[in-house]
Structure formats: C-alpha cells, structure tokens
Write a structure and sequence with these properties.
heterodimer, A: 730 residues, alpha/beta, Nucleotidyltransferase, domain 5, 4 domains, B: 403 residues, Rossmann fold, 2 domains, 4-stranded parallel sheet, 45% helix
C-alpha cells in the first residue's frame, strides 16, 4: 500500500509517494495559480510512474489550497503545521526550533521535551506578506534580479539598510529609495533577508527562545543562501546574548540545518501521520472528480459564489447616474464650478487667485475667481527639479491668459521649498487645503475622503477644522494607481473603467488588505474564469474596504459623521463612486455622499481659497510675477558635498541655487552660497534631507532650544527633573 | 543607628549602601517617580545607585525586548520588556542587584477624596507579572544575571497601607528592613513627590499667568502620565511647542484656591458640583486616577481662556481611555476650545502624517486663537487672579516669554 502526501501551497505543489517507509516518488513545481490542474497532473504522473492505484492506496493533503481537493479524490486533509511537526519529530528528533517560510505564510514550531514525549508550540502568520517568500521575490523582481541569482546572493559581510519588515509593499518602496540612492543591489537583497528574519523572530517567537538544533524549511529557506546566513547570524547572536549552552566547541552555524528535503516536510509528515490513520478515511478514489471539477465544477462554483455586481438593475443604474453621472461617464459637476473653457471675458483684468500644488509626482496649478469658481487648471509631471516644475506649470497659467494674480498660495510636498522662491503669500498644508476646498462647496461636510494616485487621505472635520487625519502613502491598498495598473493590464483606458465595470452582472469577492496578496488573488479569480469587467468591478468594490477599514483604520464609520465628500482623481471613476456610496450608506444609514465638483483639483482649489481669504484680509501679494519666475536663473550642484549624510542611504542631492534679491545666502555651507541667492534642495528621499548638514542642524536645534525656553512644556520638566536622584539637584 | 548595624546580617547579603536598584521608567512611574527616589534614598540606598531605564524607544524594544514580549494588546505594557531587558544587561561594573517594578494598584492624585477612587488601570497594575513571564519562560533570566526581581503590590493612593505592603514586598531584598523605617521612608517618598508636583504646578501657573498678562495662547495635553515618555507619546506635544505654544499637562495644572474659585466658584454656588475637584457632573464612575485627571483637565481647559487648544493622546485600543473620548471632546469643544486627538498611538511614529497633522493644528491655532481667547474671556467670571497678581519671580534662566 502506497501513501501519498500532497502539499498544495500558495505558490507551489509538492508531493511524495511512500511505501513501507521507502520514498518512491517526489516532485515540486510552481503552480502559477493553476493549482488544481497541477494537482491533477501530479496524480496522473504518480499513477503512471509509480503505480498509484485507486481504491487501494491512501492519499493525504496539506497546504492552504488543499481543503477543496481532498474530498474530490477521497483524501484526508491534515493541517500543515501538524504535518511538518510530525515529520520533524520522525526525521530530526534533535531539533528544537523549526522555521518554515512559504510563499505567502510563515510558521515557527518550538519543540520542548515534555515527559516522555515532546511539547509543541506552533505559531503561524498568513495575513500579511511581511516575512514571507513573496516579500523577497516581489522586491527582487522589481530590482530585476532573476531567481537563480537571488538564490546565490549573500548576506554576510554586506552593509545593511533599513527596509520595512512589516509589509512587502513598504519594503518595495524602501528598496526603490535605496536604488535611487545608488545602493548596490546585493546590499538591498541582504537587507531584505535581514528584514525577513527579523520579522519571523519578532512575530513568531512570542517569548520563546529558538534553541539549537534549528531546522529551516520551505522554499525561501532552502533556496536563498543569504537567508540561511541571516538566520545563522541572528540565532548565533541570540544564543550568545541569552547564554544558551552549545555542545562544547560547536560552531553555532553547525546547529542550524537546512534539510535537502526542506520542501517536502509537510508531505512527509502527511505520510507519517497517514501510517497510523484508519485507511478507510483516506482511500484514493482516482482523479475523475478532480478532472470534472477543473472542467465544469469550478465554473458552477464561481456562479454560485459570486457577489452581486455594482449595479443590480437598469433602474439602479438610472437613479445612480442621475445623481452622480455625466453623459461622458464622469462624475456630475454641481453648479458653481466652471471649466477653463467656460471662463470668458477679459481675464487679464479679472482678480484671480492662483494656487500651485507641488506633489511628489506632479505639479498642479489652478486659478480661482473671488467667488470660488475654478477658472483654469493644469498640471505637469514632475521632472525632479522644483524650479523647472514651477516654471512649466506657471507658463501654462500665463498662456491661458491670466495676467493679474491677486494672491498666490502654495501647497503639497514642495510648499516650504518654493514658498520664497516664487513669492507665495501663503503656504497651506494639504489637509487645510483639502478641507477648505470641500467646505467651500459643502459647508456641512463631516468627512473628506481623498483617494489619489499614490495615497489615501481621510480628514475628519469638526468645528470647521480638520480634527483628525489618516494618511496612507506607503501601502498601495486602496489607492488609484492600483486600479490604473489593472485597467492597463486589460488594455482598458481609465476613462472607460466605470463603463466596463458596470457591465458586470456578478463579480468575484476579493480579499481586503495586502496589495501583494490582492494581486495574486486577481490572478486566481481570473483563472477561475472571471472576466476583465467582473474583476474590475470587484476591484472597485473592495476599494472602500481598503480605504476606510484597512488604510483608514476606521471601524465605526457612523461615529465620524454623516456627510461624506469624495475627492481625489480616483473619484472621477464612477465605479469607485458607486462602491463608495454603497459601502458608506451600508455603514451609516442616512449618510449623504457627494463627489467634489473638481475631485482632482479640490486641494489646489482649497489652497487658492485660502489665498483669497488672505487677500481679503488686506494682503498685498509678493508673487514674483510670471516673467520673473520664467527668468529665474539658477545653478545646480551635485557632488560629494551635496550628498546627504543623515543616514546610510546617502541620497545624491542637488542644490539648486536661485538668484533672488534680498536672500540671505549660506556662508556657513560646505557649498557656500553668496548673499542674494536662495538654495532649493532636491533629490532627497525624506524630509531630513532638506537640512543641508550638521551646521544647519545646529542652527535649527539652537532655534528650537530657544523656542522651548520661551514656550515651556511641563512634560519636559517631568522628563528632566522627575527622575533625578540627588536631593537639591533640582 | 547602632541597632541598625547590629541587625544587619553581614555575610549573606550586600550592605544597603552597595545595592544598585534598577527601576523600569514606565507606566505608573511617570506619576510616582519622586516617591521612589525619596523612598529608597531614605532607606539608605545611595541616590546614584537608584537607576532608571531610559525612555522607551523602538531600538530599546528591538535590542532588549526581542523575543521577550508576551501577548498584550496594550503597547505601553508591551514596551516594558525592553526596559527590563535593558536594565538586566548593564555592563559589569554597573550591574543592578534588584529589578524593582512595583505593581501599583492605586495612585496618589490631586483628586483623591473628590472622586470615587484613584485606581491604576488593572492591566497596567498587573503588567510586571505579565512581562516577567517573558523572562522566566525557559530560564530565569533574572537569576542568570544575578538580579533579584521585586514587584511588590502597592496601594500608593492609600498611604496608610503602603508601609506594610512595601515592608512585606521588600523582605529579603533590602537587608534587615524594619516596618518603622519603611514607614519613615514612605513618608519621605510622599514628601519628595509632593514637592515635585508643587514645583510643576507652580511652573504651570507661571505659564498661565504670562499667557493671561500677554493675552497669548497655550495648549493643554490630556493624556496618561506615561504619554510624556517620548517613545509612548511620540513627542507630539513637543512638535507643537516648537510652533511657539507653551504646553500644559492636566496632571500638573495649578490647584491654588484662588484660581479654582475663579474657575469653578459659580458652578459650586449653582449646585452643579460640590467642590472645584468634583467631576461627578461629567464622569460618575470616577474610579481610575488617570481617567479622572483627564476629565478634570478637560473641565479646567474649557474654563481657562488662554488654553486655546487641547491635545488628547491615547494609545492603541486603550480600554480605559475609550469611554472617555466623547465626554472629553464635548467638554472641550463646547467651550469653543480647539480639540485634536491622536488616538491609537502605537510602536511606529507615522512621521509623515504626524508632521502634516501638527502643521494642520498649528494652522488652525494661528488662525483662531485670538477669537478663542476673546470668546472664552467673555464667558468667564470677572477678576481673574492670574491677571491680578504678579507671578512669583522664577529662577534665573527659567522659562519665560519673549519680553
């Protein structure tokens, strides 16, 4: 009698066939989301290559994808950690700690002697990509490192950099930053290994010390030499710190094993447990029903499982479009907003307020009338030089015929950088700009939800101020770029997204949360036969969940208010608007959901309105003027003296020195700046890089200390004095 | 004195003067600090041998707490693993002999006698037991480092019980400890704590008096005392301070009778409350010392014209804080004071969004503080003592506003 142990995991299928303790057959392959097909292929080959026979042999399944297949072929499901533990006890009784890292999960098992047997403590994590194989591979792919090379890359003796260990998408952002800063790929990969081991130790030890011997299992642990080295480094250090007694003269590294069978432990454990099971519960019944399921069953299941589509009926479409839709498929524009084309008359004479929004990827400008009407808007993709961006965007404003600017507001990441250079009257923080933009049109708004291309912002309003603010700029969950990416993959222009998504009559249910897993979930659903329309609909449907619950951490939406304003370019997409309306009204009965008349420009309009307010308060603009901005002369320097030394990333910054009458210059700098010049720093990847060096930092610190002296903080007194020990010391 | 030496066992325990006591600077320590300094000093421990762990930080947790963390959803509790670890692994010549981590059941509070009780959060009280487990699971990490672990249960809110509790709790830890000297040491401890609190309240009053004189705004933070720890409160109030606003904390609000009479006298005469410290009008179940102080602080902030803005801090999923979110917000907002809350503070400081939030608050404060002060002044009783009496002269180099 043969016993099959088959492990269908998130990225691979592995199997062994055993007979009387002998191994007859084994294989391992990536399934590329065609899990069922690969299982069938394995079974067929086992029958042909080693005589697996229906109604005689036994089959046991394990792994995250197995639950559905086992009953189809008569097999029994065994939880994977139980299976792994059984195999370890049988084949490596000397082991006290096991780490198994899979494609989308990670597990640890602690074995402790308990009486005659062994106590097992098991921890597992499968909700997030941090610490898993996907975490490494996703970033390696982005860096263009082939899997074969990845396997040989080292950890030891390489400089490590800080990479977020918590989330695969955060890590990718960190890795991108490192690449831009010129960090060698080898060091980035080593840092990834560091992050994975750290994450496993931080999340899955829970107060236990991993004691020797240690067994490393799973694909990543087997294939990636660097990962093994990282384990050796960390465990060796941990044992030294905790004075763990090692067998005399043993090098800690020799106590950490990687088994040649590392991929098959769950399979071997199945066979191990199977030997003691009642044969009737796991009799192999042949592969017929599995074949049927692949060809027909899964499609029937798809039809049963699918959720209601975005629009249930023509009636619903009618009422939704009446409230939110425009003939061109975009969100309806309430009265009060005019487009640039609609603005006529002598623009040159008109009092106009200009606002520029310098984001990390684009620079936008809007012109607003004293009544708050949008007269003109334009944008340029950022070229990395803020001065050139400012020139480009203002050139467009001027070309549209706006000569007289009563006041200039500036907002976005670049606001502090460019405020003096272009002569902005007010620099407005993003939240205030968004709130002003929303409150102008909807004075009774409670909540603003801004979903942009790269980030999600939620602003809760009270007393006419932004009382709370949630920002998610690092996790792609719920942002517009993700939708755009999927639409591009299907070759569907973003403008047609809603129209196509509304065609779906049913849609799959995608899991909320980690964007890395969402991507593989999409592939999986696609394989089940869901069409582009249906997947796009479901992606829009899951967006509110990611925005409010996953990114915004707002469990109780009803507590934050009842009037919701949707802003940001992503809300031009009516499929998203429909999903948001359904989600919000489902959570907050009686909620009113409105889309900002100019969703993409709402923030910039708000900034312009702040400029208008400033002007009404009697301000006389110090805007440099279009011509002067156009004529701004500057020299840019990029050399070893401009390189940022605040952290190991060492960003190669550029100092852009602009000629500006009255500017103070920087005589203390390593790259001295004469009077009459203003320095703009670019190319830094974090706000700290805006400070030139320790000299400037000293100045800032001194000013801060002075400000602290003038404006005391009682907590500081507690921090400084309350833990003093000597009487009379103060 | 001679009796004391006569009773000291010589060979089996270190003399007191040589003992080094390590105290994790966490949780209840942030409001009882000087009690312990005064207490141990009075027992003959050399002041420089009373050692506090450093402020909470991610590095501390990474370096010393890794793998020691036990399951607890309260971040300030989880952090103590790092504090314990840091105190245990000090270099050879700075090794501690005792790790002292009191289980503080009740707290000294200026609201004592006016509220139902002054208890600590039960989770915080029990934290030492919970955290200790992470250091005992496999091997006794304390014994390994030659450290004696002492976590006496102590009702600091009830001074009468304290000497007996600490006398019992420190048996065998402090050599030849008698009840009488413990009683005396506890008295010294309370005196040291009161002296510090009085200094802090005086400093707060100076700040308020200058604000009143110059009609300038200040901020008040409503939070638990441990949010003063930069690793727990993420220095949010310091960022606002840097924008040019003095910062008060509810725990150290001045409680001089003249000031309280001006703020609460009307409410007492109209029968809303029995005393200036009474919070039964807004918080009937006043058992928790820290929560009570936050609620009282909200009332005080609402009545103080120059407090233009209140910042509420709370840690992730804090079960003690959650029920008070709405009442605190409403008390503050109804007075026309700006209110901003940072809830769910956790291990990571989301620097980008925090910077934006601080700038946001600074913007609205700058825009509205003049109106807020005027409105609140109009609503308050005449004859503010802050404006009448010149503030006591501060020490040279002390805090002051721009002349």
């Amino acid at each position: 009698m043969k016993i099959v142990g088959l492990d269908a995991g998130s990225t691979t299928v592995k199997a062994v066939v055993m007979e009387g303790g002998r191994r007859l057959w084994r294989d391992y392959q990536r399934h590329n989301t065609r899990q069922a097909e690969l299982v069938l292929d394995f079974l067929t080959r086992m029958e042909a290559e080693c005589g697996l026979a229906p109604e005689r042999d036994l089959i046991f399944f394990t792994g995250s994808g197995s639950g559905g297949f086992a009953p189809l072929v008569g097999g029994k499901f065994i939880q994977e950690v139980v299976a792994v533990a059984a195999a370890v006890e049988r084949h490596h009784p000397e082991v006290h700690f096991v780490s198994e890292i899979g494609g989308e999960d990670m597990k640890t098992v602690f074995f402790t002697p308990a009486g005659a047997g062994t106590g097992k403590q098991v921890y597992m994590q499968s909700a997030c990509s941090g610490g898993t194989g996907a975490f490494i591979e996703k970033t390696a792919r982005k860096l263009g490192v082939p899997l074969e090379d990845l396997a040989r890359m080292k950890y030891r003796d390489l400089s490590l950099h800080k990479i977020s260990s918590k989330c695969g998408i955060f890590a990718e952002v960190d890795a991108n930053t490192l690449v831009k800063a010129g960090v060698p790929v080898e060091e980035i990969i080593a840092s990834l290994y560091e992050a994975v081991v750290y994450q496993n130790l931080a999340q899955l030890t829970k107060g236990n010390t991993p004691l020797p011997g240690v067994l490393l299992l799973g694909g990543p642990n087997l294939f990636f030499e660097g990962l093994q080295e990282a384990w050796q480094h960390h465990l060796g250090r941990l044992w030294a710190e905790r004075s763990v007694a090692l067998p005399h003269g043993t090098d800690p590294e020799r106590l950490i094993h990687v088994s040649g069978d590392a991929l098959y432990f769950a399979c071997l454990g199945c066979a191990e447990i199977g030997e003691k099971e009642d044969p009737r519960v796991a009799r192999y019944r042949g592969s017929e029903r599995l074949r049927w399921w692949i060809e027909e069953g899964q499609h029937e299941q798809k039809a049963r499982e699918g959720a209601k589509a975005l629009l249930a009926s023509e009636e619903e479409r009618g009422s939704f479009m009446k409230k939110y839709g425009r003939p061109d498929g975009r969100a309806v524009v309430p009265p009060g907003a005019r487009t640039a084309r609609a603005a006529t008359g002598a623009k040159g004479a008109e009092t106009a307020f200009l606002a520029c929004d310098f984001g990390s990827t684009t620079a936008k400008a809007v012109v607003v009338s004293p009544q708050g009407e949008l007269l003109f808007s334009c944008y340029v993709m950022s070229k990395g030089n803020p001065i050139e961006d400012a020139k480009a965007v203002l050139r467009q404003v001027r070309a549209a015929g706006f000569e007289r600017v009563a006041a200039l507001a500036i907002t976005g990441y670049g606001k502090d950088l460019l405020k003096d250079v272009v002569g902005a009257d007010v620099a407005i923080v993003e939240t205030v700009a968004h709130a002003a933009g929303a409150l102008h049109f909807f004075p009774d708004a409670d909540v603003i939800c801004d979903v942009g291309g790269c980030d999600v912002k939620i602003m809760l309003l009270r007393q006419g101020t932004v009382s709370d603010f949630r920002l998610n700029s690092q996790c792609s969950s719920g942002n517009g770029a993700f939708l755009q990416g999927v639409a591009e993959r299907y070759d569907i222009p973003l403008e047609h997204y809603a129209e196509r998504a509304f065609r779906a009559t049913r849609m799959p249910t995608l899991a909320m949360g980690c964007g890395v897993f969402l991507q593989s979930d999409i592939v999986n659903q696609q394989r089940k036969g869901w069409t582009a329309e249906e997947i796009m609909a479901s992606l829009a449907a899951v967006l509110p969940l990611n925005v409010w619950v996953y990114a915004g951490q707002l469990q109780n939406l009803a507590a934050v208010g009842r009037k919701f304003v949707l802003q940001g370019g992503t809300h031009r997409n009516l499929a998203v608007v429909k999903a948001q309306v359904d989600f919000i009204t489902g959570k907050v009965p009686g909620a009113e959901v409105v889309v900002h008349p100019c969703p993409g420009e709402a923030g910039a309009i708000g900034a312009a309105l702040c400029a208008a307010e400033w002007w009404r308060g009697g301000g006389a603009t110090r805007f440099l003027g279009f011509e002067q901005v156009e004529a701004l002369a500057y020299e840019s320097v990029t050399n070893e003296h401009t390189t940022c030394r605040w952290c190991a990333v060492n960003c190669r910054r550029t100092f852009i020195d602009v000629r500006l009458p009255g500017a103070k210059g920087r005589p203390w700098s390593k790259v001295p700046l004469a009077e009459g010049r203003e320095r703009v720093i670019s190319g830094n990847s974090c706000p700290k890089g805006l400070l030139e060096d320790a000299n400037e930092m000293r100045g800032v610190k001194a000013r801060l200390e002075e400000s602290k002296r003038v404006f005391p903080n009682i907590a500081e007194m507690v921090r400084e004095d309350a833990f003093r020990r000597l009487e009379g010391e103060g | 004195m001679q009796r004391w030496f006569a009773r000291t066992p010589s060979a089996d325990s270190k003399a007191r003067a040589e003992l080094r006591i390590g105290i994790p600077k966490a949780l209840g320590l942030w409001s009882t600090h000087q009690f312990w300094v005064g207490f141990f000093t009075a027992l003959g421990i050399e002041p420089r041998r009373i050692v506090f762990s450093s402020d909470t930080s991610e590095e501390q947790a990474r370096q010393y707490g890794k793998g020691r963390v036990t399951v607890d959803c309260c971040y300030p509790v989880k952090c103590i693993s790092g504090h314990y670890g840091e105190l245990l692994v000090r270099e050879k010549h700075r090794k501690i002999d005792v790790l002292f981590s009191p289980m503080i059941y009740s707290l000294p509070s200026f609201l004592k006698g006016h509220a139902l009780d002054t208890l600590a959060c039960p989770r915080v009280m029990a934290a030492p037991e919970n955290i200790k487990a992470g250091f005992l699971r496999e091997k006794d990490a304390f014994a390994e480092h030659g450290v004696r672990y002492a976590a006496p249960f102590v009702s600091l809110g009830d001074p009468k019980l304290v000497p007996k509790q600490l006398h019992e709790g420190l048996q065998g830890v402090i050599p030849a400890l008698t009840l009488a000297e413990t009683r005396n040491a506890a008295r010294e401890g309370y005196a040291a704590l009161e002296a510090f609190n009085a200094r802090a309240a005086r400093r707060s009053r100076e700040v308020l008096a200058r604000c009143a004189r110059e009609d300038r705004p200040c901020l008040m933070v409503l939070a638990r005392p441990y949010h003063m720890d930069p690793g727990i409160g993420h220095e949010i109030e310091m960022d606002l301070q840097a924008h040019g606003y003095p910062v008060l904390w509810a725990q150290h609000f001045p409680t001089d009778p003249d000031l309280l009479e001006w703020m609460f006298g009307d409410d007492i005469r109209r029968g809303f409350i029995r005393s200036p410290h009474d919070i039964s009008d807004v918080w009937p179940s006043s058992y928790s010392a820290n929560t009570n102080e936050i609620l009282w602080g909200a009332k005080a902030a609402a009545r103080m014209p120059w407090i233009a803005c209140v910042i509420r801090l709370a840690s992730y999923e804090c079960g003690m804080d959650q029920p008070s979110y709405t009442p605190v917000q409403q008390i503050v907002e109804r007075s026309g004071t700006l209110f901003f809350s940072f809830q769910d503070l956790d291990s990571t400081k989301p620097a980008a969004s925090m910077k934006i939030r601080v700038e946001t608050i600074a913007y609205y404060l700058q825009k509205h503080w003049r109106d807020i002060i005027e409105r609140k002044k109009a609503a308050s009783a005449p004859g503010c003592p802050l404006r009448k009496i010149a503030p006591p002269a501060g020490p040279a180099g002390g805090p002051g506003f721009r002349a």
